[in-house]
Write a structure and sequence with these properties.
heterodimer, A: mainly alpha, about 0% strand, B: 2 domains, 3-stranded antiparallel sheet, two-stranded antiparallel sheet, 4 helices
Chain lengths: ~40, ~220
């Protein structure tokens, strides 16, 4: 996979990365709740 | 056989168990009941299927991780013997067999460890097992770090569901749920990695709220 200059910008753009951090955490919590954790 | 383009490749030697001899009550060798020839512990999986058959049998993957011959033996993480590879095995020109074994470390080992711990507690308290989860129905996340700085570090964050492809439920997306299975790169991954380290140690020390932290 080639990483373009545009990709590299978004990878280190802190406000966007903060948004992705929140989304990734919510995805993990949702997926874990869907698993047979009970 | 085919060729796959790659920038970097990581090939890992085959996982094997410890060369222990298992002796039964009658002093006979019971190794074939406890472990596979590779030394990994047999559990409630369906062994001996070829890849084409295994691909269509998500129920061939273990659910309780209990040895069928010795019910007091459980195996979690990289200790249990998977029923086969998770993608088509290949043989190189030199005759070396290359097959993709399922990942059984990290979050997956934690999830299976939780299931077996609950199962053993169930057996002690009620005599029946209530917890089960196959790798064909298991979610896992992985953070591959590329620099741990919280300012300019980066990591690849990978989500996979299910860990072992289930071609019955997801026939058009290589056996995985395309709404969940995902990878992305960025500084958020470095923050995720730090958070995973901190919360893991919190959980490991059984500090307040540790039970709600995912594996």
């Amino acid at each position: 996979m080639q990483i373009s200059d545009k990709d590299r910008f978004w990878m280190s753009f802190k406000p966007f990365q903060l948004w992705r951090f929140i989304v990734l955490n919510l995805k993990i919590l949702k997926a874990v709740n869907h698993s047979k954790r009970a | 056989m085919g060729e796959t383009a790659y920038d970097f490749a990581m090939l890992i030697p085959q996982f094997t168990g410890q060369p222990i001899k298992y002796i039964g009550h009658d002093s006979g060798d019971v190794s074939d009941k406890v472990v596979t020839p590779a030394g990994l512990v047999k559990v409630d999986a369906v062994y001996g299927l070829d890849y084409a058959t295994l691909r269509g049998r998500p129920d061939a993957w273990p659910a309780t991780y209990q040895n069928p011959s010795y019910p007091s033996i459980f195996a979690a993480g990289s200790a249990f013997a998977p029923p086969g590879p998770i993608s088509e095995p290949h043989v190189t020109k030199n005759g070396t067999s290359i097959s993709a074994a399922p990942p059984r470390t990290g979050m997956i080992a934690g999830v299976i460890g939780r299931i077996t711990a609950f199962t053993i507690a169930d057996l002690v308290t009620s005599g029946t097992m209530h917890h089960r989860e196959r790798m064909t129905e298991m979610f896992a996340a992985c953070v591959a770090s590329m620099g741990d700085s919280l300012w300019d570090g980066e990591a690849a964050t990978i989500f996979m569901y299910p860990v072992v492809p289930d071609y019955r439920r997801f026939p058009n997306s290589d056996g995985r749920d395309p709404m969940v299975t995902h990878m992305e790169l960025g500084t958020s991954g470095a923050w995720m990695k730090r958070m995973v380290h901190e919360t893991f140690m919190h959980k490991f020390r059984a500090r307040p709220g540790w039970t709600i932290i995912p594996e």
